[in-house]
């Protein structure tokens, strides 16, 4: 059997994944310059080249991994895991670590060094996660892993890009039509041209003809473009490790590293549900190594396995799209070419591909789990929706020149249960998995197992991993310690007490409840 490195559909996959990575790079450039006061020599000379090394290495590994799996299983439909900058960590590190430090010190170089250490520690946690990742996958129901991804996909991916499309419909809807026709209807375009490539071309042409492209779309007016080789920067981190700022923000760094491990497990489960079963330890280890390498060469932002494998697989991408993405990102990072691309290609031209990816992930959560677990999948969506809703509230308040800290959560008491929204948002990845897992085991009438998950939730609440928060001038931050969310601990303990009581009630009186399995109904 033939296992080509590149197939024609890899072009579609490349455009979608490259746009996703490009968005992250734009955010890095914008946030580092505007919120952290970093000069071009740091952003384009250190951070982006460091990111280039890790992204190129990771994409090449996951391409090789996919090719190895294809040869082993004698299949030519294996799709490589997507890989790039971790969006959640990017926002967390910028808003809750780097920006506050800059506001406190006004020193962008100190901010950069702290960001590198945060990235390094996050990578170490991901590498340690490789030791227990397989066990976590075995004990967690598929519905719990996939529903968490579905919640993130429908909110942080699909909704954002849907809004962008309908914000500029005249240049975004027509490209979207090509993408939907190809991926929903499986229509083959003339000359076999990929729908993503046509969408990019059409959207770019419309944007230029209608006057949407111009100086206002340039992120950096200076266009800082020249080759910047990576620099080994490990020495810059040594004097920061025992800094008071590292001790102050370690409570953010550690949970983010754990979140990254859990998110990678969910993406591996998603890939397996789509037909590609990858080795958990090696995938997580590569994830962690990528983040560590990024930090050693100057980047502040961890890399990770991306959400979206089923979407790329449905498009027809195989291994080549990952190789192309790694090379493309490396070139634009090492050359500072990000701003030039933005001058030529509008994001609206290709974001329809990413909307499609979100749609596929949400559909997969229901299609690839047992039919009677659908309610558990739906339950797991709520924490991500709460997290997205809180982001919308905070963004709106910032635009109005105020914050939740200034107006106080009591201001929403009569119209919006803001305390509940924030509590559900804190550690939402864990909460989503827990609620969906409890639901699965209740559906299967495995009350002892549901009780154990409830006690786990009580413990996480008690130490502040989930639900505990504090309003600060810089936003909502997690609070860690003993008993910081004791009210939630009590609530989850009440879950456990009821479930164990029902278990013994059924054992003592089989007629007390209908104990038929849902699969038999």
Comma- or semicolon-separated keywords:
521 residues, mainly alpha, two-stranded antiparallel sheet, 21 helices, 4 strands, 69% helix, globular
Structural features, described:
- With 521 residues, the chain is mainly α.
- It has helices at residues 10-34, 40-73, 87-105, 108-139, 142-167, 169-185, 195-209, 235-238, 244-273, 280-296, 309-315, 320-335, 338-344, 351-367, 374-379, 382-399, 404-407, 418-425, 428-443, 447-463, 486-508, and strands at residues 83-85, 303-305, 469-472, 475-478.
- The protein has 2 domains: 1-369, no CATH class; 372-521, no CATH class.
- A hairpin with a 2-residue loop joins strand 3 (469-472) and strand 4 (475-478).
- The longest helix has 34 residues, at 40-73.
Structural class comes to: mainly alpha
β-sheet strand percentage: under 5%
What pattern of helices and strands is seen along the backbone?
Answer: HHEHHHHHHHHEHHHHHHHHHHEEH
Number of separate helices: 21
Runs in which pLDDT lies below 50 for 5 or more consecutive residues are 217-224
Helix content: 55-70%
Order of strands side by side in the largest beta sheet?
Answer: 1-2
What is the arithmetic mean of pLDDT?
84
Overall tally of domains: 2
Profile the largest sheet.
2 strands, antiparallel
| Distance, first to last CA | 44 Å
Number of strands: 4
CA-based gyration radius: 23 Å
Principal-axis shape equals globular
SSE inventory with pairings:
Layout: H1 10-34, H2 40-73, E1 83-85, H3 87-105, H4 108-139, H5 142-167, H6 169-185, H7 195-209, H8 235-238, H9 244-273, H10 280-296, E2 303-305, H11 309-315, H12 320-335, H13 338-344, H14 351-367, H15 374-379, H16 382-399, H17 404-407, H18 418-425, H19 428-443, H20 447-463, E3 469-472, E4 475-478, H21 486-508
């Amino acid at each position: 059997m033939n296992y080509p490195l590149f197939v024609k559909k890899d072009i579609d996959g490349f455009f979608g994944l490259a746009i996703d990575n490009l968005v992250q790079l734009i955010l890095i450039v914008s946030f580092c310059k505007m919120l952290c006061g970093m000069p071009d020599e740091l952003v384009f000379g250190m951070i982006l080249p460091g990111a280039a090394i890790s992204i190129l290495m990771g994409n090449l590994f996951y391409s090789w991994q996919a090719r190895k799996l294809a040869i082993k299983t004698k299949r030519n439909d294996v799709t490589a895991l997507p890989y790039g900058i971790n969006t959640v960590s990017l926002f967390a590190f910028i808003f809750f670590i780097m920006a506050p430090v800059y506001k406190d010190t006004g020193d962008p170089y100190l901010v950069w060094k702290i960001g590198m250490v945060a990235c390094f520690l996050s990578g170490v946690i991901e590498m340690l996660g490789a030791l227990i990742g397989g066990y976590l996958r075995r004990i967690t129901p598929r519905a719990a892993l996939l529903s968490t991804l579905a919640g993130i996909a429908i909110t942080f991916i699909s909704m954002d890009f849907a809004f962008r499309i309908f914000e500029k419909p005249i240049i975004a809807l027509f490209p979207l039509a090509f993408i939907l026709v190809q991926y929903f209807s499986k229509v083959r375009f003339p000359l076999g041209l990929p729908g993503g490539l046509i969408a990019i071309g059409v959207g770019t042409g419309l944007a230029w003809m209608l006057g949407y492209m111009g100086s206002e779309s340039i992120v950096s007016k200076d266009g800082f473009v020249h080759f910047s080789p990576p620099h080994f920067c490990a020495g810059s981190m040594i004097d920061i490790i025992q800094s008071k700022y590292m001790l102050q923000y370690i409570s953010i760094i550690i949970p983010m590293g754990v979140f990254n491990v859990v998110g990678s497990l969910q993406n591996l489960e998603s890939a397996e549900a789509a037909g590609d079963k990858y080795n958990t330890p090696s995938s997580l280890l590569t994830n962690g190594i990528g983040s560590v390498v990024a930090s050693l060469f100057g980047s502040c932002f961890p890399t990770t396995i991306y959400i979206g494998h089923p979407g790329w697989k449905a498009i027809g991408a195989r291994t080549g799209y990952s190789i192309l993405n790694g090379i493309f990102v490396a070139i634009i990072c090492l050359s500072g070419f990000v701003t030039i691309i933005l001058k030529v290609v509008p994001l609206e031209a290709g974001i329809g591909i990413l909307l499609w990816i979100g749609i596929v992930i949400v559909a997969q959560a229901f299609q690839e789990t047992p039919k009677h677990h659908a309610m558990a999948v739906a339950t797991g969506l709520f924490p991500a929706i709460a997290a997205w809703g809180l982001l919308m509230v905070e963004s709106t308040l910032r635009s109005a020149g105020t914050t939740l800290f200034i107006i106080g959560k009591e201001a929403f008491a009569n119209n919006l249960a803001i305390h509940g929204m924030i509590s559900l948002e804190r550690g939402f990845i864990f909460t989503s998995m827990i609620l969906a897992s409890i639901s699965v085991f209740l559906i299967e009438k495995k009350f002892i197992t549901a009780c154990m998950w409830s006690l786990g939730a009580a413990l996480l609440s008690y130490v502040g991993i989930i639900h505990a928060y504090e309003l600060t001038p810089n936003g909502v931050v997690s609070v860690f310690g003993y008993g910081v969310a004791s009210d939630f601990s009590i609530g989850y303990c009440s879950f456990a007490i009821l479930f164990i009581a029902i278990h013994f009630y059924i054992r003592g009186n089989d007629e007390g409840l209908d104990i038929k399995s849902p699969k038999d109904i």
